[in-house]
Write a structure and sequence with these properties.
This protein is of the alpha+beta class. It is built from two helices and four strands, in the order ββββαα. The termini are far apart.
């Protein structure tokens, strides 16, 4: 199937903040269908291919602020099952 020359193959990301292996980005190509900005969490992977991959699409800007303030919440959203909110 040929690619549409009018549409880029990957969205264009603007990094907001990097925390360890996580990166918070804003997709600048287009907003969501409801008109809201598209914020995502990306995670760095070394295997099988190095690079950042989307792991979570944030619902709104407030959720982005919560992730930035609380690193454990970001781990809780990670689908790889990263330990979070561990008691001492």
């Amino acid at each position: 199937m040929p690619l549409n020359p009018q549409q880029p193959p990957y969205p264009e990301y603007t990094p907001i903040l990097t925390q360890g292996m996580y990166r918070f980005v804003y997709v600048t190509d287009k907003p969501l269908p409801n008109g809201s900005p598209d914020f995502r969490i990306q995670k760095w992977y070394d295997y099988p291919k190095q690079g950042y991959k989307d792991i979570y699409h944030l619902d709104n800007q407030q959720q982005l602020y919560t992730c930035i303030e609380d690193a454990e919440y970001t781990k809780w959203l990670d689908p790889d099952g990263v330990p979070c909110y561990v008691k001492d």
